[in-house]
Amino acid sequence: MRMSLLHLALQNLRMRKFRTLGVVLAIAIASAALFSSIMLMKSMSSSIELGMAQLGADIMVVPGDAEPEGAILLGGAPEWGYFSLRYAEAISSLEDVAGVAPLAFVETTEGCCFRSGVYIVGFDREKDFLIKPWVEKQVGELRAFDAVAGAGYDWLPGSEVRLYGVSFTIVAKIPATGVASFDRGVFIPLDRLYWLSKRSREAGIAGMPLEQGEVSALMVRLEPDANPVSVARAIEFQFPELRAVVAKKALSNVKRQMQVMLQSLLALSALTWLTAVILVSVILSMSVNERRREFGILRALGATKRFIFGQVVVEAYLLATLGSVLGMLAGYTFLALFQDVIEGYLRMPYLLPNELYVALISIATIDVALILATIASVYPAYRSAELEPYDAIRSGE
Amino acid sequence: MNRVIATERLTKIYNTGGSEIKAVRGVSLRVEKGEFISIVGHSGSGKTTLLSMIGGLTRPTYGRVLIDGVDIWAMSDEELSRFRNRKIGFMFQFSSLISTLTVRDNMLLPAALSGKVEQQHEERALELLERLGLEHRAGAYPAQLSGGEQRRVAVARAFMNRPEIILADEPTGDLDEESEEQVMELLTHMNREEGVTILLVTHNLELAARTRRTLRMRRGRLEER
Fold it and tell me: Residues of B with CB below 8 A from A388's CB?
């Protein structure tokens, strides 16, 4: 049958473009808000967990004047100064400390390297437990001018990158962590980074701030069953000029802060939906009033009350489906395009969830849109179906 | 002859702002199969209300409408809708096309509402449009037609499902003479050749004179003329 309920509904939406556009836009905005909120929530929460799992450290030691602990662990870009590597030795000797891995971050400047504003991360060939085990598993020992790329680059193994005038070969990539300085970092051994620092100074290449024997952070791994808070206190007691951030504690603080923000986002999204439902309901009611004669004629030609009810509801479903799909596409595009901006603004790691999760959020968003379209359309649909046919036909005469 | 329509003390009272308006007062009417009856009367005399109660579009306050012996107002909505679709063709005193559908789709609506649109329905639609000189307008939307063309399409559509009864409410009002003649010829043809029972409400006494029997509505009551 060429002409069905769906055909009639589609024709009506096609021919009343302005009204269709208004409703679709309202649903699209509400869907985009909901979809983006859930995506943000999921991506931030899983990024934090993934990032911490990747880092694998119990305590992070930084200079005493470094930023708040959440930003230190997850903000990605270490904006504090360097401190002496000699602290590593002293901290290793503390009770319950299983290992200390020094890390040095150097932010590239304009003209020095393949790109400015990214980090060269130096890790210790011997003591590192963050990057080294993974590199060893993938490629074995790093050669003199080998480097490992963060997950944010599309480089294939064998690609060349220029760092302070020296060409390095990318031999592997580490998995995504959601921590910007890691995902957009280029990893080389710490001794090679010191060499690069010395060489760049000798060659007169400006912008390398790191001195021999300096580091940005010491990542501390504890013995099983050790109390990280006690060890952190011991570090700060012994070295008051340093700050020891307990990963789990910082993580729960960050999660708590994030929860408040996301609850606000969801509340805003709920408000948007409420507005959309009212708007859609009003538009549908107006539309039903305009179309009283049409419904009356359909009834005279043999349409049942159920058919008329279905006509209004099917139109609402079509609008909801179209609106929610467009809204989700807009939301996803926004999150993907402005990933860097969002990450910078939130100062938190941020990875888009995998395809399965995106599909689940999409289905949930469409479901919400359909449920709310039902709520918005039931009353106008009922009113249309219950019209006395001849009164409806004569309306507007 | 078989009695096809019978009304028993059919009454319609409208309550408007606390006052009662008796639009139709106890009308009892008998129509035999194949009759072509005109109902004349002044505006507000209750002609249209009577027609809409007979067609199952307005529920009477009192009384019964029997079609082929069946009380149509005792039917469920599903039954009454199916009954309207299969047995009755309506013509209204204004354009009654669905503005979002083409002429062709408007023509096929009664068939679509009864189930499935088949080739025979397409052929029937074309044949009826041809009879009214509108076959070349099949792809047009109502807004692209003149008022007269819209009315003629609606008249043609009334015959789509080969109804046994046509309820025509001023079908030629506002039409030019030529279009009016085409519509009357179609009605006469369907009545004579296909035995369709027709109830025609009109102000036009010349048109009424072309029917076999004329009734007059006066203040809600029906009289033989």
Answer: 57-59
